[in-house]
Amino acid sequence: MKANRGQIEKALDAAGQASAADVRFFLLYGPDEAGSAALAKRLERAMGPDAERVDLDGGTLRDDPARLSDEAASFSMFGDKRWIRVSGMGEESVPALSALLEAEVAGNPVLAVAGALKATSKLVKLALEHRAAMACISYQPDAREAEQIAIAIAREGGLRLAPELARRIVALANGDRALMAGEIEKLILYLDAAPERPAEATGEALDALSADNPDSDAALLVNAVLGGDLGAMHRELGQLTQTGVSMASVLRPLLTRAMLLAHIRVEADRSGRLEAAMESAGKAVFWKEKGLVSRQVRLWDASGIARVIQRLAHAERASRSGRTMGDLLVRHELLAIARQAARER
User: What is the pLDDT of residue 299?
Assistant: First the structure.
């Protein structure tokens, strides 16, 4: 079945319930891959944090077309909800999808995120024509839609975002949904906002964090802190002191890297494959730094990198308490993070 965004959102939010069992397969495709990924998150939330997720790819389904329907009909060994996510799905997966849609039993929802598939794709045609499947194409939003998306993302995190600030974020991210979400997430952390503790976004906070805020090249410091290289960290901090750069200016790139590591670590823990998790980050990992980022992911487990993000958020707030005292508190937090990373090396 063909579905618009409102219809697919409603169906994904209801997935896993008995009333939604008629839809076995969700195909999310189109040029706006970030939009498709955002829709996929709705199914993950609907299934709940204890649900078992099975990850498959197009190559696996090509070699074993029965695998998809088998997984969809299987029970979780822990008795929890279960769902299947397919990456890299293309024409080679048509036999597997046909088997799923025609199977007598398939209680676990299956979701696939694909790129800009052609309208003539056999995979797309099958998903559009079968009543047990839903297909939704995501296009790049226009400026007005992007502003509304930014406001909605902020609202979910407990942040009230005025239209003029939403426009600025859209411009900073060039309308890219994933980049907008990243900028908004930094604002949420910076302002200590939460759904139960809403806060108002300000232009001053956006100025301090936004990608167009000119700051020093902090890449060496970022890698030293999160990689546990204490000697390099002290050298970089010394250079920053000599040039008179505020310590607050290094927190944004550090927080951005920490959030990237957290994303990759979660994906690696779920799939058991670090390389695949690295690939899932896409262009967020600069090709020259793949080796460094990979080593940093290995140093930090999920709870460790979560504490790092909390420390950096605390440092963000501390940096607003005054230049001298704020810089001292930021240095203290960076040293604590680097020491922990050094212990894990």
Answer: 93
